[in-house]
Amino acid sequence: MIPMGSGTSASRYVKAIHEVLKSSGINFVPGPMSTSLEVKSLQELFWVIDAANERLKEMGVQRIVTNIRIDCRLDKEISIHTKLEAVGP
Amino acid sequence: MIPMGSGTSASRYVKAIHEVLKSSGINFVPGPMSTSLEVKSLQELFWVIDAANERLKEMGVQRIVTNIRIDCRLDKEISIHTKLEAVGP
Amino acid sequence: MIPMGSGTSASRYVKAIHEVLKSSGINFVPGPMSTSLEVKSLQELFWVIDAANERLKEMGVQRIVTNIRIDCRLDKEISIHTKLEAVGP
Amino acid sequence: MIPMGSGTSASRYVKAIHEVLKSSGINFVPGPMSTSLEVKSLQELFWVIDAANERLKEMGVQRIVTNIRIDCRLDKEISIHTKLEAVGP
């Protein structure tokens, strides 16, 4: 999520979203360019995007550009852990 | 939405998603690299992503990588039309 | 390309980048959420991203978040035209 | 980078790209949904994208969809480390 019209620094907004994630109990991994979430269903994902969006609105952000990438596999169970393990170290 | 494990051509899947969009009544613009949708709320967006995902599952896609970009403005009303008009011709 | 710290409106920056594209002779299609380019090589793409980035720097943008999506096919010739034709109308 | 037409599993391709990154000496952090790179210039980034693309071609991938996100700041020095530190723990 990129706030526009709110200066060049976004760290306070990223922190606020991480708080939303923590209180939701969703497993997440912060990264330098994005945050990865592990959810059981699209519904859980949508719920948390909506909650994060509401949090930024409350903070006064006037324009929010959100980039979401979903990896949905039907052929096997995956998690943040299995995805990282498959490629490294 | 990018189907993995389903060959190099994706046009039949894109067409199927456009059918979902048409029957939903949502205003959309197909583009060469993505499709743009105009929705009234995040809920409407989530509903249609879920419907498109279900459609690809029914077609037998085993892994779906979906990239979504949301432009949410609180400072003024926008539409596909106003956005294109602001930068063109 | 999303300018941060430059207000909520980005249309003057998008227009400036379209001017860069026009003077380069590259075939492009403006869209509501992104602009699609047709290039012959990665080198041509890199050249134009660099030129667009320089243009925004000249305009005083302090932070630029750029999202690029490349569709590189080796199995057949594609263009903006063939991609749109494959899925529509 | 998402290979199309090469099955649902991409880990061998991700590993090959990580090898390219390692031999280039570029600082990178693998993540569950993407890999973050730290580069000194757009030229360095373009060089490594091209090298990674060539590697996938050599492996026989017929269609490569690449998503790149660039965070370019002119107002201060940033790194993977400073970005993670700004939002955590």
Shape call of chain A: globular
User: Uncertain spans of chain A, ≥5 residues at pLDDT below 50?
Assistant: none
Query: How is the largest sheet of chain A built, in terms of strand order?
Result: 1-4
- Give the strand tally of chain A: 4
Mean pLDDT of chain A: 93
Largest interface: A-D, 25 and 24 residues
What pattern of helices and strands is seen along the backbone of chain A?
EHEEHEH
Task: Report on the architecture of this protein.
4 copies of one chain form a homotetramer. The model of chain A has no long low-confidence stretch (mean pLDDT 93). Chain A is α+β, with helices and mostly antiparallel strands and 89 residues long. In chain A, strands 1-4 form a two-stranded antiparallel ribbon. Chain A is globular. The first copy, chain A, has helices spanning 11-24, 42-58, 80-87; strands at residues 2-4, 27-30, 35-38, 63-73. Chain A contains 3 helices and 4 strands, in the order E-H-E-E-H-E-H. The interface between B and C is medium-sized, with 24 and 24 residues. Strand 4 (63-73) of chain C pairs antiparallel with strand 4 of chain D.
Q: What secondary-structure arrangement, pairings included, does this model have?
A:
Four copies of one chain form a homotetramer.
Chain A: E1 2-4, H1 11-24, E2 27-30, E3 35-38, H2 42-58, E4 63-73, H3 80-87
Antiparallel strand pairs in A: 1-4, 2-3
Helix pairs in contact in A: 1-2
Which descriptors would you attach to this protein?
two-stranded antiparallel sheet, 89 residues, 4 strands, 3 helices, homotetramer, two-stranded antiparallel ribbon, alpha+beta
